[in-house]
Amino acid sequence: MNILKVENLDVSIGGTNIVEDVSFEVKKGEVLAIIGPNGAGKTTLFRALLGLIPYQGKISWQKHIQIGYVPQRIEIDTDIPLTVEEFLKARSQNVTKIKIEKILKYIQLDEKILKMRLGEISVGQRQRLLIGWSLLENPDVLLFDEPTADVDIHGQESVYKTITYLLKQFDLAVILISHDLNVVYQYADKVMCLNHRNLCMGKPSEILQTDQLRELYGGERSFYEHDYHHHHKH
User: Fold this and answer.
1) Which CATH number fits domain 2-232: 3.40.50.300, 3.30.1490.20, 3.30.499.10, 1.50.40.10?
2) pLDDT tens by residue, 86-122
3) I need a labelling partner for 98 at 20 to 30 A (CA). Which of 34, 76, 133, 217 fits?
4) Which pTM does this prediction carry?
Protein backbone atom coordinates (compact mmCIF):
# COMPACT_ATOMS: atom_id res chain seq x y z
CA MET A 1 0.00 0.00 0.00
CA ASN A 2 1.44 3.38 -1.02
CA ILE A 3 1.85 5.89 1.76
CA LEU A 4 3.32 8.41 -0.67
CA LYS A 5 3.04 8.96 -4.40
CA VAL A 6 4.95 11.76 -6.13
CA GLU A 7 4.16 12.58 -9.75
CA ASN A 8 6.03 14.95 -12.07
CA LEU A 9 7.37 17.09 -9.24
CA ASP A 10 9.05 20.37 -10.18
CA VAL A 11 10.56 22.83 -7.72
CA SER A 12 12.06 26.14 -8.83
CA ILE A 13 13.83 28.59 -6.57
CA GLY A 14 14.53 32.08 -7.90
CA GLY A 15 13.84 30.95 -11.46
CA THR A 16 16.27 27.99 -11.26
CA ASN A 17 14.91 24.45 -11.54
CA ILE A 18 16.16 22.56 -8.50
CA VAL A 19 13.96 19.46 -8.88
CA GLU A 20 12.69 18.50 -12.34
CA ASP A 21 9.98 16.00 -13.27
CA VAL A 22 10.59 13.63 -10.34
CA SER A 23 8.17 10.74 -9.77
CA PHE A 24 8.36 7.91 -7.22
CA GLU A 25 6.32 6.08 -4.61
CA VAL A 26 6.92 4.71 -1.12
CA LYS A 27 5.05 1.80 0.41
CA LYS A 28 4.27 1.12 4.06
CA GLY A 29 7.29 -0.26 5.93
CA GLU A 30 9.70 0.51 3.07
CA VAL A 31 13.07 2.28 3.32
CA LEU A 32 13.85 4.56 0.38
CA ALA A 33 17.34 6.07 0.24
CA ILE A 34 17.94 9.19 -1.86
CA ILE A 35 21.53 9.63 -3.04
CA GLY A 36 23.18 12.26 -5.18
CA PRO A 37 25.93 14.90 -5.20
CA ASN A 38 25.81 18.10 -3.15
CA GLY A 39 23.40 20.63 -4.60
CA ALA A 40 21.39 17.92 -6.41
CA GLY A 41 18.08 18.98 -4.83
CA LYS A 42 17.75 16.32 -2.11
CA THR A 43 16.91 18.65 0.80
CA THR A 44 14.72 20.77 -1.51
CA LEU A 45 12.77 17.60 -2.35
CA PHE A 46 12.25 16.96 1.38
CA ARG A 47 11.04 20.51 1.92
CA ALA A 48 8.50 20.06 -0.86
CA LEU A 49 7.34 16.73 0.63
CA LEU A 50 6.81 18.49 3.96
CA GLY A 51 4.81 21.26 2.26
CA LEU A 52 7.34 23.93 3.29
CA ILE A 53 7.95 25.35 -0.20
CA PRO A 54 5.81 25.78 -3.32
CA TYR A 55 6.04 23.13 -6.04
CA GLN A 56 4.34 21.94 -9.20
CA GLY A 57 3.20 18.38 -9.81
CA LYS A 58 1.50 16.09 -7.36
CA ILE A 59 2.47 14.91 -3.86
CA SER A 60 -0.12 12.48 -2.48
CA TRP A 61 0.34 11.32 1.12
CA GLN A 62 -1.93 8.64 2.55
CA LYS A 63 -4.84 10.22 4.45
CA HIS A 64 -4.30 11.10 8.13
CA ILE A 65 -0.64 10.18 7.93
CA GLN A 66 1.73 11.36 10.67
CA ILE A 67 5.09 12.49 9.29
CA GLY A 68 8.20 12.67 11.46
CA TYR A 69 11.16 14.72 10.27
CA VAL A 70 14.75 14.45 11.53
CA PRO A 71 16.86 17.38 10.28
CA GLN A 72 20.54 17.15 9.39
CA ARG A 73 21.44 19.09 12.50
CA ILE A 74 19.97 21.36 15.10
CA GLU A 75 21.91 24.49 15.89
CA ILE A 76 21.96 24.73 19.67
CA ASP A 77 23.64 27.48 21.60
CA THR A 78 25.75 25.46 24.04
CA ASP A 79 24.95 27.96 26.80
CA ILE A 80 21.22 27.33 26.47
CA PRO A 81 19.94 26.28 29.92
CA LEU A 82 17.45 23.74 28.54
CA THR A 83 17.67 20.15 29.78
CA VAL A 84 17.03 17.12 27.57
CA GLU A 85 13.80 16.46 29.48
CA GLU A 86 12.59 20.04 28.96
CA PHE A 87 13.46 19.80 25.27
CA LEU A 88 11.34 16.65 24.86
CA LYS A 89 8.46 18.07 26.90
CA ALA A 90 8.43 21.19 24.72
CA ARG A 91 7.32 18.99 21.79
CA SER A 92 3.70 18.85 22.92
CA GLN A 93 1.47 19.02 25.99
CA ASN A 94 0.72 15.30 25.69
CA VAL A 95 4.28 14.26 26.46
CA THR A 96 4.18 12.23 29.68
CA LYS A 97 7.05 10.86 31.76
CA ILE A 98 6.11 7.32 30.63
CA LYS A 99 6.21 8.40 26.99
CA ILE A 100 9.66 9.97 27.49
CA GLU A 101 10.98 6.79 29.15
CA LYS A 102 9.68 4.73 26.22
CA ILE A 103 11.29 7.07 23.69
CA LEU A 104 14.65 6.85 25.49
CA LYS A 105 14.49 3.04 25.16
CA TYR A 106 13.80 3.38 21.45
CA ILE A 107 16.72 5.75 20.91
CA GLN A 108 18.88 3.75 23.34
CA LEU A 109 19.82 6.59 25.69
CA ASP A 110 20.09 6.27 29.46
CA GLU A 111 17.56 8.10 31.63
CA LYS A 112 20.43 9.99 33.30
CA ILE A 113 20.63 12.10 30.16
CA LEU A 114 17.29 13.77 30.96
CA LYS A 115 18.86 16.06 33.57
CA MET A 116 21.74 17.06 31.30
CA ARG A 117 21.69 20.27 29.35
CA LEU A 118 21.47 20.09 25.58
CA GLY A 119 24.88 21.75 25.32
CA GLU A 120 26.51 19.00 27.42
CA ILE A 121 25.61 15.98 25.30
CA SER A 122 27.55 14.71 22.28
CA VAL A 123 26.54 15.40 18.69
CA GLY A 124 25.65 11.71 18.23
CA GLN A 125 23.43 11.77 21.32
CA ARG A 126 21.84 14.99 20.10
CA GLN A 127 21.08 13.37 16.76
CA ARG A 128 19.43 10.40 18.48
CA LEU A 129 17.50 12.88 20.60
CA LEU A 130 16.18 14.47 17.40
CA ILE A 131 14.99 11.02 16.32
CA GLY A 132 13.27 10.70 19.71
CA TRP A 133 11.68 14.13 19.28
CA SER A 134 10.26 13.05 15.90
CA LEU A 135 8.85 9.84 17.46
CA LEU A 136 6.84 11.64 20.15
CA GLU A 137 3.92 12.15 17.75
CA ASN A 138 3.81 8.43 16.71
CA PRO A 139 4.71 8.95 13.04
CA ASP A 140 3.90 6.49 10.21
CA VAL A 141 6.84 7.73 8.16
CA LEU A 142 10.19 9.26 9.11
CA LEU A 143 12.18 11.59 6.87
CA PHE A 144 15.90 11.63 7.67
CA ASP A 145 18.05 14.33 6.08
CA GLU A 146 21.60 12.94 6.35
CA PRO A 147 21.22 12.00 10.01
CA THR A 148 24.96 11.52 10.57
CA ALA A 149 26.37 14.50 8.65
CA ASP A 150 28.18 16.03 11.65
CA VAL A 151 28.65 12.89 13.74
CA ASP A 152 31.93 11.01 14.34
CA ILE A 153 32.29 7.34 13.35
CA HIS A 154 31.28 5.96 16.75
CA GLY A 155 28.29 8.31 16.86
CA GLN A 156 27.29 7.36 13.30
CA GLU A 157 27.16 3.70 14.29
CA SER A 158 24.91 4.47 17.25
CA VAL A 159 22.56 6.61 15.13
CA TYR A 160 22.18 3.88 12.51
CA LYS A 161 21.75 1.20 15.19
CA THR A 162 18.91 3.34 16.53
CA ILE A 163 17.32 3.56 13.08
CA THR A 164 17.62 -0.24 12.61
CA TYR A 165 16.07 -0.83 16.01
CA LEU A 166 13.16 1.47 15.15
CA LEU A 167 12.53 -0.32 11.86
CA LYS A 168 12.21 -3.59 13.78
CA GLN A 169 9.97 -2.09 16.49
CA PHE A 170 7.58 -0.15 14.26
CA ASP A 171 6.15 -0.67 10.83
CA LEU A 172 7.62 2.64 9.76
CA ALA A 173 8.33 3.83 6.27
CA VAL A 174 11.62 5.72 6.07
CA ILE A 175 12.86 8.17 3.45
CA LEU A 176 16.55 8.73 4.00
CA ILE A 177 19.00 11.14 2.38
CA SER A 178 22.48 9.72 2.83
CA HIS A 179 25.98 10.25 1.45
CA ASP A 180 27.14 6.96 2.90
CA LEU A 181 26.69 4.19 0.37
CA ASN A 182 27.48 1.53 3.00
CA VAL A 183 24.43 2.68 4.91
CA VAL A 184 22.32 2.73 1.77
CA TYR A 185 23.41 -0.81 0.91
CA GLN A 186 22.68 -2.06 4.43
CA TYR A 187 19.33 -0.42 5.14
CA ALA A 188 17.50 0.61 1.99
CA ASP A 189 14.92 -1.43 0.10
CA LYS A 190 15.03 1.04 -2.79
CA VAL A 191 17.48 3.71 -3.93
CA MET A 192 16.70 6.83 -5.92
CA CYS A 193 19.56 8.64 -7.67
CA LEU A 194 18.78 12.34 -7.72
CA ASN A 195 20.67 14.98 -9.61
CA HIS A 196 17.86 17.49 -10.16
CA ARG A 197 16.12 14.67 -12.04
CA ASN A 198 15.47 11.09 -10.99
CA LEU A 199 18.36 9.40 -12.83
CA CYS A 200 17.75 5.88 -11.56
CA MET A 201 15.63 3.90 -9.16
CA GLY A 202 15.86 0.32 -7.93
CA LYS A 203 17.35 -2.06 -5.36
CA PRO A 204 20.73 -1.08 -3.85
CA SER A 205 22.42 -4.15 -5.38
CA GLU A 206 21.33 -2.99 -8.86
CA ILE A 207 21.85 0.74 -8.43
CA LEU A 208 25.19 0.87 -6.61
CA GLN A 209 27.14 -0.12 -9.68
CA THR A 210 30.11 1.87 -10.90
CA ASP A 211 28.44 3.03 -14.12
CA GLN A 212 25.38 4.30 -12.32
CA LEU A 213 27.53 6.15 -9.79
CA ARG A 214 29.72 7.62 -12.51
CA GLU A 215 26.64 9.03 -14.20
CA LEU A 216 25.28 10.35 -10.92
CA TYR A 217 28.41 11.81 -9.31
CA GLY A 218 30.75 12.59 -12.19
CA GLY A 219 33.97 13.96 -10.68
CA GLU A 220 32.97 13.01 -7.15
CA ARG A 221 32.77 9.33 -8.08
CA SER A 222 36.12 8.13 -6.69
CA PHE A 223 35.10 9.00 -3.12
CA TYR A 224 31.84 7.08 -3.35
CA GLU A 225 33.39 4.14 -5.12
CA HIS A 226 36.03 3.84 -2.41
CA ASP A 227 33.36 4.04 0.25
CA TYR A 228 31.27 1.33 -1.34
CA HIS A 229 34.09 -1.11 -2.11
CA HIS A 230 35.53 -0.63 1.35
CA HIS A 231 32.25 -2.00 2.72
CA HIS A 232 32.55 -5.12 0.60
CA LYS A 233 35.96 -6.07 1.96
CA HIS A 234 34.42 -6.85 5.35
Assistant:
1) 3.40.50.300
2) 988 888 778 888 999 999 988 889 999 999 998 888 8
3) 76
4) 0.84
